[in-house]
Specification:
single chain; alpha/beta; TIM Barrel; eight-stranded parallel sheet; two-stranded antiparallel sheet; globular
């Protein structure tokens, strides 16, 4: 496993498992299996409705002596409608059955998101969150948070894959040392990305799949990447990416795809609507 060090000195794995749209029962098994296979980063959220399941998967692995809590990196997110609830962080910790999380995000820039971020800052100061993040922040909302926050975000979670690397946003937060965590790393099931000629050729060269080439590209970009799956074979294959390295020339060739497609194009109004409904936007 490879790691990147955040601006506050915390180390985070470059590869983890995501749990978006995975049912609680499947989440328990996915998390447990991933930990057994060597994964150390688990990503979840209030809105995924599976924080409790993540906690159960982690506890099972700990109880069996596979891992210690301090060896794991757990990230979760607060949803806009509970930003001003002073017990929101405690409620998350209870669901996870943990004393702290390693990374705590504001999930969307909807509602009074600055109130939510201030709750995160309090959690950070008292040790209930080891690092802070923002998810899906762009433009005006990003500028407001960067200006008004006391503790600048250590991680920014955005859509990130070879078609979309968000270079402008990354450049904007570079001065704060903010690292990108990418969701939809494999294009949200888009078969087209797997068939791109550059990935097909590299897969043949390295005896890997196109998905493994894409995930390795992400880690070499220093993008923390969190592919989700309930299939143990896919989880295993997704983790088998650190026995080869793409060359600078190959990375440059992949870079030619950047800026050609995004899968998540929600408007501010749509984000606000889903936030009010207590639902994760179908991204």
């Amino acid at each position: 496993m490879e790691y990147v060090t955040l601006s506050n000195g915390v180390k985070i794995p470059l590869l983890g498992i995501g749990t978006f749209l995975i049912s609680p029962d499947d989440t328990i098994n996915s998390v447990y299996s991933a930990i057994k296979m060597g994964y150390r980063l688990i990503d979840t959220a209030n809105a995924y409705m599976n924080e409790e399941a993540v906690g159960k998967g982690v506890k099972r692995a700990i109880d069996e002596g596979i891992i210690k809590r301090e060896e794991l990196f757990i990230s979760t997110k607060l949803w806009p409608t509970i930003y001003e609830n002073v017990s929101a962080v405690e409620d998350t910790l209870k669901r996870l059955d943990m004393d702290y999380v390693n990374l705590l995000f504001v999930h969307q820039p909807a509602g009074n998101y600055m109130a939510g971020y201030r709750q995160l800052e309090k959690a950070y100061k008292c040790g209930k969150a080891k690092s802070l993040g923002i998810s899906n922040f762009y433009g005006e909302e990003l500028e407001t948070l960067l200006k008004e926050s006391e503790i600048k975000p250590h991680v920014m979670q955005l859509e990130a894959h070879p078609y979309c690397t968000e270079k402008d946003v990354r450049d904007r937060v570079k001065e704060y040392g903010t690292v990108l965590m990418g969701w939809y790393p494999l294009g949200h099931g888009d078969p087209g990305i797997m068939k791109e000629e550059v990935f097909v050729k590299l897969a043949d060269k390295y005896c890997k799949s196109s998905a493994q080439i894409i995930l390795r590209w992400a880690t070499q970009m220093n993008f923390i990447t969190i592919p989700g799956s309930k299939n143990t074979d896919h989880i295993r294959d997704n983790g088998d990416i650190f026995d080869f390295t793409l060359t600078d020339e190959e990375m440059t060739e992949i870079a030619k795809l950047d800026g050609t497609k995004k899968y998540y194009n929600a408007t501010r109004e749509e984000v606000a609507k889903y936030a009010a409904m207590h639902l994760p936007f179908e991204r």
